[in-house]
Amino acid sequence: MGSRLVDQLGAQHVAGATAAALAERIRALILDGRLTVGERLPSERALALELRRSRSTTTRVYGLLETDGYVTRLHGGSTRVALPNVAPSASSGDDESAIDLSIASMDSTPGLYDATVRSLPRLAAMRGTSGYSLQGLPELRHAVAQRFTRRGVDTDADEIIITSGALNAVNLILAAMGRRGERALVEQPTFPHALEALHRHGYRLVPTPVDADGWDHRHFTDTLLRSRPHVAYLIPDFHNPTGATLPEPERARIATTARSSGTRLIVDETTTELDIDRGSSPLPMAAFSPEVITVGSMSKIAWGGMRVGWIRADRAVITRLLATRPSFELGTALLEQCIAVELLSDMPSLTDHVRTRLRAGRAAVAEGLIGLEGITMPPTPGGLSAWVDLGAPISTSLSLAARSHGLVLPPGPRFTTGGVLERRLRIPITLPPERTAEAMNRLRLAWDEVRHGSPQRGELRHEAVV
């Protein structure tokens, strides 16, 4: 089995690369968080054998990285990932003028302030209680359950747990039901922090491909039956980052196959409400199997600062989750739950705001990409972003170049296992049009540099990607 370093590099992408280019690629992996600080790298000899390069080349690679502070080496010992202790430069994208495209999220809904004011009497009425809310406020659980019922899945408030966001929900599920060393089926690409959560809980990841035109359904079901993973994490509506939607017949087929393989489906519906002009609303995955565990949140439809999410599952699973939750938290903030009750009472206003903003953001990205020869933007009927095709495996290089122009732009491999999808780039459609226009101007400058062979040396940091 090859090393994780070469797996992340992608041997096919570095064939024939100079020592300086190899060092730059490894540096990008470190700064983007795909290699972690303290991680042990293969020896010079082992790396040379894996890459089929000379020992002098790999010695030079590690020497360049050590000089810049990105690895530490012990004579006769190991080489480990490090970060240089330097102050950020003005060109690194950390100044206030930088545009951060690692965050695909809108500002708050216009109704947030009024909902907060309306929620205060509800909060005041609870002052005589302990203030802890392990399962969540009954009113909020009822509102979430009603939302599922209206979408075609009969749901009771007892089948809902309120969490501190969707990622918190995923971590609670894995803490209660995870099995270290087991396999987890994940889409390729997918939400990076879900991959990190699965890694942290000891899962071995098995990818299945997704693109803007959808899933490879045969690969998905064949992998379920062949690998029999313990869990599968998927985003069936406006998939992050591709924007694809899983058709209803395939939802039924996957749910049936997952039951046959003994796989628990963890379905992330964080992006479900982000419709622009899809034209249809498939039934939730939970409609096709009682064993599906669904997570969702308020962060994309109301505001990222609303740390309120939920889990929908059968009562037996809810009991297990409630038994585990006190080990790391005692509930979700009451004020935010009270606000969420008010917001969910007027879903049409929320979804109208989302649709208007996303339509404008999509148009601004499409306009900004005009004239960038080689880049293709796929149809984007909803979701957070456009999953653009760069026409060549240059995503990491483009991200590095963008840094020198004050543009934080996570490369395609940030959303994958194994450092693949260098042809792809996620561009959020969530910023105001004028901000998007400026971001596209900066992208154009970086694109010209990379295409003409003179990219600037930038700082590709390990940003949170949402």
Short précis:
With 466 residues, this protein is of the alpha/beta class. Helices cover 41% and strands 13% of the residues. It contains 16 helices and 15 strands.
List keywords for this structure.
16 helices; Aspartate Aminotransferase, domain 2; 3 domains; Aspartate Aminotransferase, domain 1; 3-stranded antiparallel beta sheet; 8-stranded mixed beta sheet; Arc Repressor Mutant, subunit A; alpha/beta; 466 residues
Describe the structure.
With 466 residues, this protein is an alpha/beta fold. The chain folds into three domains: 4-81, Arc Repressor Mutant, subunit A (Orthogonal Bundle); 99-104 and 349-451, Aspartate Aminotransferase, domain 1 (Alpha-Beta Complex); 112-346, Aspartate Aminotransferase, domain 2 (3-Layer(aba) Sandwich). It has 16 helices and 15 strands. It has helices at residues 4-9, 11-14, 19-31, 44-51, 55-68, 112-124, 138-150, 166-177, 192-200, 217-227, 248-261, 315-324, 334-344, 347-369, 395-403, 433-451; strands at residues 40-41, 71-73, 79-81, 99-100, 160-163, 183-188, 204-211, 214-215, 231-234, 264-268, 293-297, 309-312, 385-389, 407-408, 424-428. A hairpin with a 2-residue loop joins strand 7 and strand 8. The radius of gyration is 23 Å and the shape is globular. The relative contact order is 0.15.
